[in-house]
Specification:
With 355 residues, the chain is of the alpha+beta class. It has helices at residues 7-21, 39-49, 54-67, 71-75, 79-86, 93-108, 117-121, 128-139, 148-157, 168-178, 184-196, 216-219, 339-353, and strands at residues 237-247, 252-256, 267-268, 275-276, 291-300, 305-315, 325-327. It has two domains: 7-225, Endonuclease III, domain 1 (Orthogonal Bundle), CATH 1.10.340; 237-353, Nucleoside Triphosphate Pyrophosphohydrolase, CATH 3.90.79. The structure holds a DNA duplex (11 and 11 nucleotides).
DNA sequence: TAAACGTGGAG
DNA sequence: TCTCCAAGTTT
């Protein structure tokens, strides 16, 4: 016989814990401050935090807030500048959708974010999690916020042994039953803080948990083993070339990648397709004395490993490339590149410096 | 529905 | 070195 959980008691103990232990972030308002977070800051942080750690997000969030202080400023921003500011954070569709969303909010909602889950869900880049998070955190609506942390906490609290992702609907139902009418924003953030600190993926510190007496996985000695997941597919290895050319005046030969797909909309070096099995033929983007840089890029994306052979050349002042464009040295910042392209640049820089 | 979509830190 | 995976969304 399993006794029903006392939701009211769980809610109360969680908020008590949060009032004392809430983490501090630049996008967050402390509990009990009586203030409500700026919806723009909540939205921006939630988009950045999708599948991304708080440590990685923090400097990007600060930079975006300093440069584009509200949704109207962001809506008016140059696409290339926003993509450059996002460079290194990954999942670049988020940046493309961020701009789309800012422009919809500015043009169709008078520069104010909708305060309802259903309206938020219609905006580009906002899915079920983010719509609920904004509704709860920015507008204190009792939306059911379910991210990876909440799934893990629910799986352990209720000892759900079905593996993810199949268990998602059940875990969401558990989360829904626990969502309070009062302080739903703090409740959501408390649940995520609990998952990020106490109820961690590895080595959870159950003795510090406000729910230790209620947690069925802890009782069963299974907390760390949950949630289970279906095994992931092995990543194949893809091979390719990049060509990094510098003109006599210092300008670099770059290209803007297509607006969709991998690294879509980002700056990058001209190169080959990336294929499995063997290296494709190297086709330099401009005439010149190309040579191997002597090291290759190793990089892992979500669904494949990549090795890139790096080719470098010094190009003449009258170089007429078949693809790409020359970016003056003064306008080129390696930090504007996605990480894989920055790795290639670091290899090329050393090779060219050795000339 | 399942695959595509980045990156860096932790163990 | 290598696997896991973090505040998910889109197609």
């Amino acid at each position: 016989m399993r006794y029903p959980m006392d939701e009211a008691a769980l809610q109360a103990r969680l908020l008590e814990w949060y009032d004392v232990n809430a983490r501090s972030f630049p996008w967050r308002v402390p509990p009990g401050s009586g203030r409500r977070a700026d919806p723009y800051a909540v939205w921006l942080s939630e988009i950045m935090l999708q599948q991304t750690t708080t440590a990685a997000v923090r400097p990007y969030f600060e930079a975006f807030m300093a440069r584009w202080q509200d949704v109207n400023a962001l809506a008016a921003a140059d696409d290339g500048e926003v993509m450059a500011a996002w460079a290194g954070l990954g999942y670049y569709a988020r940046a493309r959708n961020l701009l789309k969303c800012a422009r919809v909010v500015a043009q169709e909602h008078g520069g104010r974010f909708p305060d309802q889950y259903d309206a938020l869900l219609k905006l580009p880049g906002i899915g079920p999690y983010t719509a609920a998070a904004i509704a709860a955190i920015a507008f204190d609506r009792p939306a059911v916020v379910v991210d990876g942390n909440v799934e893990r906490v629910m799986a352990r609290l209720h000892c759900v042994e079905d593996p993810l992702p199949d268990a998602k609907p059940l875990l969401k139902a558990h989360a829904a039953r626990l969502t309070p009418r009062k302080r739903p924003g703090d409740h959501a953030q408390a649940l995520m803080d609990l998952g990020a600190t106490i109820c961690a993926v590895k080595s959870p510190t159950c003795p510090l948990c406000p729910w230790q007496a209620d947690c069925r996985a802890r009782t069963a000695g299974m907390a760390e083993a949950l949630p289970r997941r279906v095994a992931k597919a092995v990543k194949p290895l893809r091979l390719g070339h990049v060509h990094i050319g510098q003109r006599a005046d210092g300008a670099w030969l770059l290209e803007r990648r297509p607006p969709r797909g991998l690294l879509g909309g980002m700056l990058g070096w001209p190169g080959s397709e990336w294929q499995e099995g063997e290296f494709p033929d190297a086709q330099p983007p401009a005439k010149g004395r190309w040579r191997c840089a002597g090291a290759e890029v190793r990089h892992t994306f979500t669904h494949f490993h990549l090795r890139l052979m790096v080719h470098v050349a010094r190009l003449p002042a009258d170089s007429a490339p078949a693809r790409g464009f020359f970016l003056p040295a003064a306008d080129f910042r390696p930090s504007d590149l996605p990480s894989v392209m920055r790795k290639a640049f670091n290899i090329a820089r050393k090779a060219l410096a050795a000339d």
